[in-house]
Amino acid sequence: MAELGVAVAADALDLAELRTLSNRELLWKLLRKPQFVVCSLALLGFFAMAAVPTLFTSVDPRSCDLAQSRGASTAGHPFGFDVQGCDYFANVIYGARPSVLVSVVGSAGAFLLAAVLGLLAGYFPGIVDSLISRTADVLFSLPPLVAVIVLLNSVQDRSIWVIVGVLLMIGWPAGMRLMRSSVFSVRNREFVQAARSVGVPPLRILRKHVFPNAMAPLLAQTTLGVGGLVGLEAALTFLGVGLQPPSISWGSQFGVAASYRDTPHLFIWPSLFISTMTISFMIIGDSIRDALDPKLLR
Amino acid sequence: MIRFVVRRILAAVPIGLVVTLGVFALVFAMPGDPLRELAGDKPIPASVLAAKRAQFHLDRPFLVQYGLYMKDMAAGQFGSTFDGQDIGEQLKLRVPVTLRLALLANAFQWIIALLFGTYAGFKRNGAADRLLMASTLFVLAVPLLVLAFTAQYVLGVQLKVLPVSGAGAGFPQSYLLPAMALAVVGFAGIARVLRTSIVESVNSDFVKTARAKGLGEQRVLWRHIVPNAILPVVTIAGYDFAGIFAGAVLTESIFNLPGLGQFLFQAIRLKEGGVVVLLSMLAFVTFVLINLAVDVLYGVLDPRVRHG
């Protein structure tokens, strides 16, 4: 994850000097890219899977027949059966929900949190900035993942929301720093000084003038990071500090597959789904960044 | 230079204290009694429990516990885990495992990233460049979990060229798969940054001057472009090494390697505050030292940022 963050930040800094693009222009540019359209459709599919799994399968993922344990695919059961003899297709479909929720809610939350804290830290130097930045420094120097695992381990009943909450609590500093640096580049521009000179209150300046002009790098970083959250949720569940047994998720399917190496379909199907989803998020993020890139606007 | 190094190390001390205190507090705040859980369902005599509590200072208030742990650590006495293993011995067994994994993974990822990134940036929009951009996007997008499982299945279960998991097969064999998995994930970020940096250098004036002087393409690339473009990549090296530890927790679990990441994970599960703090401290010190080395190296590579 660290590598991704650095690579994205390096790319994203270029966006600080940005000519603002209206939402309609942006959407139009994006819709002309075939890979964006294909990936958006794929994601819509995953969202539908998460919202209404019954659209895709009428089989109950929890009705199992032990005699079929680890069975190969048969008619009506295209992905075969899992260790308990449950229909694997239904299980993989139902596993989409945690991944979609963690990635979408997690990134939206991270964007908001990082944006608000970054705006405050960048626009109010002094106590506010020191308070926020020093907290970020401390969180940064905790060994990555350790804090997440410790926090998750101390919760007895871990729901999706607990996982999202912990990831937000630990994950905001990187985005905050990016936002803070782009606020620095905007805060003394003419239009901000003009607004200040006619007596616009600071919070309104932040909302109406600074935020729209400083958000592009953070937006690009967030969209590129969405896919990573899918993998992170699966990894945490695989390690045993994520979702717990009765809930169905791709991460726990990996955990089971690790003990049954001779039954490859147990990991192939969740792998395919999770990779398609993360790649779609990634390509969409890449397209948005390209569309926002000022060098390509010229 | 020496003043710079000393200043940086002094500045790291308070952060290190805050980090260890924070980690210790997090573990302390975890619900449940570690000793009772260790005993499982068996009843445990009150006197034994009290003796064990006293041995691990668990009967003392939070700050006193923290102080005693730090004192023991500073004296080099790591003590034993709750189930009686000597922590110093464990470290002696486990540090080499993680170190080998980290070094091998880094060797792989830097070699691939430097060659691939340089070439792709130099021949921008060429075949290698397109291949690099597509493959890095793919690699950054596919979760480590999926990469590792696929590698284990193809190379371990099907082709049987490498062991699937465990450290039983000794140094190179057991470590190749996990190191490759880590390296593939790590190389993408480095190669991308290097490519961007090379592309920027290619268009700069000193390169035009070098070409105008009539230097050959290879000489322009290796003597003029690469030394200038390498700086941002060196910066990532520091970040990247910090990520190794986080990667180790997951990788050592997937590949069942008895390293520090696995130790840390077990310690968190058993609420061994002392071990978690010790390992976090180790990770933090490594992080500080590597970043310091990176900054010093920066000064060596680029005369403009020499530290006074």
Provide the descriptors you would attach to this structure in a database record.
heterodimer; A: about 300 residues; about 0% strand; B: MetI-like fold
What does this structure look like?
- The complex is a heterodimer of chains A (298) and B (308).
- Chain A is 70% helix and 0% strand.
- Chain A has 14 helices and no strands.
- In chain A, helix 5 (96-123) crosses helix 11, helix 6 (127-141) crosses helix 8 (160-186) and helix 12 (250-257) crosses helix 13 (265-292).
- With 308 residues, chain B is mainly α.
- Chain B has a domain at 90-269: MetI-like fold (Orthogonal Bundle).
- Chain B has helices at 2-28, 34-39, 46-55, 62-74, 87-122, 127-141, 144-158, 171-202, 205-212, 217-229, 231-254, 260-269, 273-301.
- In chain B, helix 11 packs antiparallel against helix 13 (273-301).
- Chain B is globular.
- The termini of chain B are close together.
- The mean pLDDT of chain B is 79.
- At the A-B interface, helix 1, helix 6, helix 7, helix 11 and helix 12 of A face helix 1, helix 6, helix 7, helix 8 and helix 11 of B.
